[in-house]
Design brief:
The protein is mainly beta and 262 residues long. It has one domain. Helices cover 8% and strands 29% of the residues. It has three helices and 13 strands. The strands form two sheets. Strands 1, 2, 3, 4, 5, 6, 7, 8, 9 and 13 form a ten-stranded mixed beta sheet that branches. A hairpin with a 2-residue loop joins strand 5 and strand 6. The radius of gyration is 18 Å and the shape is globular.
Length: 262
């Protein structure tokens, strides 16, 4: 049975954060959405050994936020002093988790995380958006599922994972569905790679159709032919092109799609 691939939108968007996440040289830096009183301060999240998320955000004109919702958590280096057993984690709640559960998303399935990005440049030590750079949707990270913890149901979780907001702040989710997906130790198709991580920028990761000024107009690989019904959000445009690729545009800002490759 083919495993499922889930395209999940994460990071800043038009209504949450308000600006695109930056492409910094070959680095896709997804800005985790703001969340008051989370305790995860942007100033303590590391892009590199010399730059915090807060520093870069200020340079890009993002000055309104101090704390983040660190999810998905895919990079060991983003926080200091990770335990050796740490793995990538991703939490989902509410309607989004209901959809995942309904589609039986679990062990062996793969999340591909995408977001809104725009190219930047470093000008005299300061990062800035390139003025004419297009706004695009691009895939920035992945997580292959090893285990799913139903936090609402009280599943026991590894002690090292208790920092994660969907676990630490579980009371805030009340009666709604709330689960955390833990990555495999290594990627099934390549045991030399971890089961989670972020990608360096590559044009093949761009979902937005080439030269389109509408970032929600996508051009997808040939493996998506015939998969229209497996997307959970209403589709405004679906064209299977002569080159075998698929042109697609969804209605609204839908943050989750499910596709089952053939």
């Amino acid at each position: 049975m083919a495993r499922k691939v889930i395209l999940s939108r994460k990071g800043f968007d038009k209504t949450t954060g308000g600006k695109a996440s930056p492409i910094m040289k070959d680095n896709l830096v997804s800005l985790p959405i703001p969340r008051a009183d989370s305790g995860d301060f942007y100033k303590n999240l590391n892009i590199s050994s010399t730059e915090s998320y807060l520093k870069v955000m200020k340079e890009l004109g993002i000055k309104l936020f101090s704390e983040a919702h660190l999810d998905p958590d895919l990079q060991r280096s983003i926080l200091k002093d990770r335990p050796a057993e740490w793995r990538g984690l991703f939490g989902q709640s509410g309607t989004s988790q209901v959809r995942l559960k309904k589609n039986s998303v679990g062990k062996g399935d793969i999340f591909l995380f995408f977001g809104w990005f725009r190219n930047t440049q470093n000008n005299n030590g300061q990062w800035e958006y390139i003025r004419k750079a297009l706004n695009i949707h691009a895939i920035f990270g992945y997580l292959e599922v090893d285990e799913v913890f139903d936090i609402k149901a009280g599943d026991e979780v590894p002690s090292w994972s208790e920092y994660h907001p969907h676990i630490r702040d579980k009371k805030e989710y009340g009666k709604q569905q709330n689960s955390v997906y833990m990555a495999t130790k290594s990627f099934t198709a390549d045991k030399g790679k971890p089961g989670w991580g972020c990608f360096n920028f590559n044009e093949r990761l761009i979902l937005t159709k080439s030269k389109s000024k509408i970032r929600t107009l996508w051009e997808l690989p040939t493996c998506f032919q015939g998969e229209q019904d497996n997307f959970v959000h209403a589709i405004e445009t679906w064209n299977e092109l002569p080159n075998g690729r698929v042109e697609m545009k969804t209605k609204g800002m839908g943050d989750l799609s499910v596709a089952i490759p053939t």
